[in-house]
Amino acid sequence: MPSIICLTFDTDYATGDDLRRLFAEHPIPGRATLFLHAPMPGVDFGPHEIEPHPIFKASEPWEETLTAYEAQFPGTPRGLRPHSCATSHMLGIAMKRRGYLYSSVSAPMYQAGLRPYRQAWGVYELPIYYMDNMDYCMAQNWPGRRHEPFDPAIIRRACGEEGLYVFDFHPIHLLMNTCSQAFYERARRRMVEEGATWGQMRHPCRGAATFFDELCGAMRAAGLESVTCLEVAEAYDREACLSPKES
């Protein structure tokens, strides 16, 4: 497969106003997929795909949570990315039964040549190539790797090498231009203690927003547009159905 880029967003803690500001300040090349933690009435999502981003609670059965989230959104959801990428085999079986086509929760980050794969219960998985909050936490999670967040090489690979590149961004990190976990924790305290908004706490140097803008610029220069996760899953499903062999 050629280079295929899916720009995706997890809306954790963001409001409708935050999303409108995101679209205005950071134009998206193509069609993105937004996993919403709550309805966003009044937001014009245009050509973008909208899917649930549920928070599963230990005291609440999976399907009860899905039913509650599905009732808040128009149409029938086809894709899912739970908060914190929580998943299980039983959830996958429930997703298939409820008509979902894909999930996007696994995170083999920075690996080239990724592609969708069909899970045993018949739901496709679209692996995540890049996740902003995991990128800036990589140094503490894998201290021996000498990782530098927001590395331009991540963008060059996505724009120049074959494979599926699912990028996962959080609007709050783009609005703040989050650069580190310490910065994010300070911002959360300010929001709680001072009532500050995400946009009021923007980091002035290199961070998630500058990286996102560089990615979008590189995509435009390469003639690439983002496609939705559903478009990828549907295309891959058609290909698999036509093939006599498992992909």
Shape: globular
The SSE string, one letter per element, is EHEEHEHEEEEHHEHHHH
Helix content: 25-40%
CATH class descriptor: Alpha Beta
Task: Report the average pLDDT across residues.
Answer: 92
Whole-number radius of gyration? 18 Å
Describe the structure in brief:
By secondary structure, this protein is α/β, with parallel strands linked by helices.
Q: What would you say this structure looks like, in words?
A:
By secondary structure, the chain is α/β, with parallel strands linked by helices. The protein has one domain: Glycoside hydrolase/deacetylase (TIM Barrel). It is built from nine helices and nine strands. The strands form two sheets. A five-stranded parallel sheet has the order 3-2-1-9-8. A four-stranded mixed sheet has the order 4-5-7-6, with helices on one face. The longest helix has 14 residues. The protein is globular. The model has no long low-confidence stretch (mean pLDDT 92).
